[in-house]
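does this look right to u?? magnesium ion version
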Amino acid sequence: MQTANDPGPGPLVPIAPFGPVFARQEISGLDRAEEEKARLAAAVESTDEVVMIICRQGKIEYVNPAFERATGYSREDVMGRSPVVLGSHRHDRSLYIGFLNTVTAGKTWAGRMTNRKKTGELVHFEGTISPVRDRTGRVTCYVSVFQDVTGRMRLESIAEAASTTNSLGYAISGLRHELANPLNSIKLSLGVLEAKLDPSMRACLERIHKEVARMEYLLKSLKNFNRDEALEIRKLELSFFLADFVSLIKYDFPDKGINVALDAAFPASALCDPRALKQVLLNLVANSVDALAGVAGAEILFGLFKVGRTLIVRVADNGCGMAKEQMDNLFKPFNTTKKQGTGLGLVIVKKMITRMGGDVKVSSMRGRGTTVDILLPEA
Ligand SMILES: Nc1ncnc2c1ncn2[C@@H]1O[C@H](COP(=O)(O)OP(=O)(O)OP(=O)(O)O)[C@@H](O)[C@H]1O
Ligand SMILES: [Mg+2]
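got this back:
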């Protein structure tokens, strides 16, 4: 690499894949060692692995063509800049602190990282970041070697969602069957009791009726969950769809002290099932309304964005938000913090959106609010 102390003439010659990448050398006929270095450098240039070299001051010194292909940034775009330029704001500070501590301790960090391309799209990388030492053992720079696993992660998430929902489906069918009959017979017996009981027992009966109704409601939601009707995927103009949806639900909210706004000013068509998308948005709105209980200046904002060929429908609230631990279990069935919740709302959201070829991303901060992004393929 060229440094302020090393301004010597001569072409830039790659000297090793994981050593300082470029050094100025006088070329006087390639000896074997130099030939080897050139071969190694050519390998780094032609590999599909995304290679980036960062100096000790944390600036990018080298990226290979695979990096340019995966991120959309050219070498000139990123040279001398901090890798923060690729930041996606999708990770906790703890991830960065973890890998900084590892590499500054002279060890190799391995893991997955989500970055943002020049176009704004997210890209998921898996690989390592290692310190590179010179002959004296001094760390001269850091090399990161990553693979673009965006496609693989999408497939993994679809497979996971499908397998969770399938096995859950079987369990739910059994449960519904076992519960529906006894519940019916409780209801019938209640009717008989009601006719014969002393009126002073009315309050008690009413409570039992309420609880039975709640169980029936739960069974109904489970039925909805299991209904595997074919989705009718078609081209849907999202800004009109959202305007319609918001104008429909808007009238319920002033009473609850919630302000609703929509920011979807550009035409954009997605491939999706309108009925399922409406169900998804209703589930998200219901969650926001719950989260906004007792919040002053409560707001639900709907938005529409486009990143590359992905359309993002956003539902954001400034409600109670969630702690990180809560977020980890967000899409697990029956995970609820609510007295009356089934904990299936978001599982159903994920299932429907995944079946439409999309994805769901949630970010939240305790006491600040929650943002749910529905990612849909552009038509
Ligand atoms: N917008 C939000 N703000 C704060 N917490 C949320 C939000 N959305 C979801 N949650 C949390 O995630 C949990 C799971 O949500 P989900 O919609 O799956 O189930 P639920 O709302 O509890 O029950 P159900 O939707 O089945 O009636 C909620 O109980 C709540 O703790
Ligand atoms: Mg819910």
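The chain has three domains: 12-148, 149-228, 232-379. idk if thats expected tbh
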